[in-house]
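Budget justification note: compute hours in this period were largely spent on complex prediction jobs such as the one shown. Inputs:
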Amino acid sequence: MKYYDKIIFELSRPGRKGYELPADTYGNDALSHLPADLMRKGQPELPEVSELDVVRHYTNLSTKNFGVDTGFYPLGSCTMKYNPKINEEVAALPQFTQIHPLQDVKSAQGALELYYNLQKALANIAGLYEFTLNPYAGAHGELTGLMIMRQYHISNGDTKRTKIIVPDSAHGTNPASAMVAGLEVVEVKSKPNGSIDVEDLKPLLDDTVAGIMMTNPNTLGMFETEIMEIAKLVHEAGGLLYYDGANLNPLLGKVRPGDMGFDIMHINLHKTFSTPHGGGGPGSGPVGVTEKLARFLPNPRVKKLDDGTFIIETGEDSLGSISTFLGNFGVMMRAYAYILTLGKENIRNVGPLATLNANYIKESLKDDYLLPIEGVCKHEFVFDGLKDKSTGVTTLNVAKRLLDYGFHAPTIYFPLLFHESMMIEPTETESLETLDEFIEVMHKVAREARETPDLVKDAPVTTIVRKLDETTAAKNPILTYSSLMGK
Ligand SMILES: *Cc1c(COP(=O)(O)O)cnc(C)c1O
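Corresponding output:
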């Protein structure tokens, strides 16, 4: 069966066409170089449509989704900030997009310089010695960082250090990456305010501990005030500290993970450094380390020689290669443009504004939504559902109702510490007007939950698809275009 046998081109009409052939870049006899058995025997079966059909089809499809360019996206833990369009222009420069990873490095010096400079800028921001930009995402960075941790202990002959301490509030990727890296996960409890319980940590620290994974501010958006004490305890026990940098946004240019005592960290360029994300990529999860760990960083690496030229190098003690070539270069270009357009002076404003926005929403809504942890949060915070739960309206219902009002839902049912978690992160890029509109709608939904609960339970009603049966959607997803999808 041909792959298109099942596809119905419902817009196709015989003979209709709309195309423009690209200039013949390879010369007229290009086809004569192709082996005859690879040549197509008949016409391809393609939809026959006019240019206008194509324009309308794709333009209509593009409006069926929700993105940060279409509306407010307070998805906690994801830092869905606006991605400035200048980053896109930079990333599209043909001088970079036309480079082939296998071409002579002498002819790709600009790209290597960008890699090197970005790596240095991140090291400055993080307070660490050196970064690799090769990993493709935060979780991939975690895996890379934990492999470095293991390699470090093994190189010291310390082979029984196989345990990694992870807080019970951690993002799911933390224990998952630890398992893939061959480490055994030991959970440390949080105190009621969400921070690590140092007394619970102490008895876990022995000579089988490879290290601890933490994020600060933690998953509840609260700063771990005892971090210096925790770092001291873990280091005294011979372990290393891994920083999950997904929550770096509120600290940017103000506080450095390296100064807090962390030895290894990843940064999600697609969160903190404003490159687009969602839909599975492409992302980038650079990993930074202290000087003593730099020799374990993955291959290949970009080095600067004394004469100012750049080379690609493979280190002998490296844990090996974790990506094809140097990683997702387009994402690096966007992040580099973002850092340069902000500059040292303005990067310091990111954290305070993100923090102010989160606290503004939190304080404005806590009369209607249950705030389990009082006090000043950093870039995000968690509600435990509606305060008044008497009508049975859940966090899921509220999230779906927000879609009807044109807002993306917050992160829901994470962290697992509360039954009705609703995690809100506005980021620094939203205006006061947008925050006020969101607050007004959240109050309105709470009022609906009291007065007309069925309306909220039936939501969403204005979206392309209504509430999905999540089990069926996960087990039997329909991922192809369907003309039955609403207009
Ligand atoms: C997003 C996130 C991750 C994972 O990052 P990906 O780039 O999605 O792989 C890890 N930890 C936290 C706290 C996160 O928010």
